[in-house]
């Protein structure tokens, strides 16, 4: 199973996986029936989540029903417990929207919830994150998870996020970190060999390897960075049951 998933992730374009993987994963879920883990997003129970990853798939990672990963389940708990995201209607921009969230966020925020991406078939608005087609000071929240490692100019993209946020608004901007995490973010657009890019950046479609200076890059965009340790507050037993990583930090950018 790990090998099959690894091959699919590495060689099938993401837009096709987004279109067709849902039904297949739900079928696989029947073979993982049990009650050891629970996805807090869709409330389905399994003996374990599916493995997921490009080279060495992580065990207990992917929910067969809603396709959530560890970071999605952590974000869901954070939004529930630490924000007003599920208590009032907000104007929300969701960049590169994840399937596990879309319908649930639409129910909460209605027409105020906008999904956008350059390629994703799940997005309502086709856009370049470097030049967003939205007015200044419009959104209360921007969700931008595992996107910035793919874009040509992450600082410019975050400046656009700053522009479209209302004063007092915030963005959640997760990026991957690969061990060993460098002190300074590394990027080199002269490297074109796919295997070398995968070795250096973690994936061949990444354009940089983020370092410990990521909060400084957020600050450079005009947003005020926050490295939030909410995951460490989740009880160990709940973290195991929900399949989340208690060491993961949530990176927010606030518009003052």
What's the short story on this structure?
With 256 residues, this protein is an alpha/beta fold.
Description:
The structure is a single chain. The protein has helices at 2-11, 14-29, 70-82, 99-109, 154-164, 194-201, 214-220, 230-233, 236-242, and strands spanning 37-38, 45-46, 50-52, 58-62, 92-95, 113-117, 125-126, 139-144, 165-172, 186-187, 208-209, 224-228, 250-254. The longest helix is centred in the first third of the chain and has 16 residues, at 14-29. It folds into 2 domains: 2-68, no CATH class; 83-254, Vaccinia Virus protein VP39 (Rossmann fold, 3-Layer(aba) Sandwich). With 256 residues, the protein is an alpha/beta fold. Helices cover 34% and strands 20% of the residues. It contains 9 helices and 13 strands. Mean pLDDT is 91; it is low at 5-9 and 16-20. Helix 5 links the parallel strand 8 and strand 9 (165-172). The strands form 4 sheets. The chain has a 7-stranded mixed beta sheet with strand order 7-6-5-8-9-13-12. Strands 1-2 form a two-stranded antiparallel ribbon.
The total tally of domains equals 2
CATH class of the largest domain: Alpha Beta
User: Strands of the biggest beta sheet: in what spatial order?
Assistant: 7-6-5-8-9-13-12
Mean pLDDT: 91
The level of helicity is: 25-40%
Largest sheet: 7 strands, mixed
- Total helix count? 9
Poorly predicted segments: 5-9, 16-20
CATH architecture classification of the largest domain: 3-Layer(aba) Sandwich
Oligomer: single chain
The CATH H-level superfamily of the largest domain is: Vaccinia Virus protein VP39
């Amino acid at each position: 199973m790990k090998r099959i998933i690894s091959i699919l992730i590495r060689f099938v374009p993401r837009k096709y996986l987004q279109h067709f993987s849902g039904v297949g994963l739900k079928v696989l879920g029947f073979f993982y029936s049990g009650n050891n883990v629970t996805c807090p997003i869709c409330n389905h129970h399994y003996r374990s989540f599916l493995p997921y990853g490009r080279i060495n798939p992580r065990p207990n990672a992917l929910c067969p029903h809603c396709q959530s990963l560890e970071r999605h389940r952590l974000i869901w708990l954070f939004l529930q417990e630490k924000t007003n995201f599920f208590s009032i209607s907000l104007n929300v921009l969701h960049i590169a929207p994840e399937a596990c969230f879309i319908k649930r966020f639409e129910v909460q925020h209605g027409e105020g919830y906008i999904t956008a991406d350059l390629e994703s078939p799940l997005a309502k608005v086709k856009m370049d994150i470097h030049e967003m087609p939205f007015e200044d000071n419009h959104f209360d929240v921007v969700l931008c998870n595992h996107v910035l490692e793919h874009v040509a100019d992450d600082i410019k993209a975050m400046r656009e996020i700053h522009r479209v946020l209302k004063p007092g608004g915030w963005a959640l901007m997760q990026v991957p970190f690969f061990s060993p995490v460098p002190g300074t973010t590394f990027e080199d657009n002269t490297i074109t060999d796919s295997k070398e890019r995968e070795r250096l950046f973690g994936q061949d479609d990444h354009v940089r390897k983020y370092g410990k200076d990521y909060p400084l890059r957020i600050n450079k965009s005009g947003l005020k960075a926050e490295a939030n340790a909410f995951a460490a507050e989740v009880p160990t037993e709940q973290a195991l049951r929900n399949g989340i990583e208690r060491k993961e930090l949530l990176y927010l950018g606030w518009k003052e």
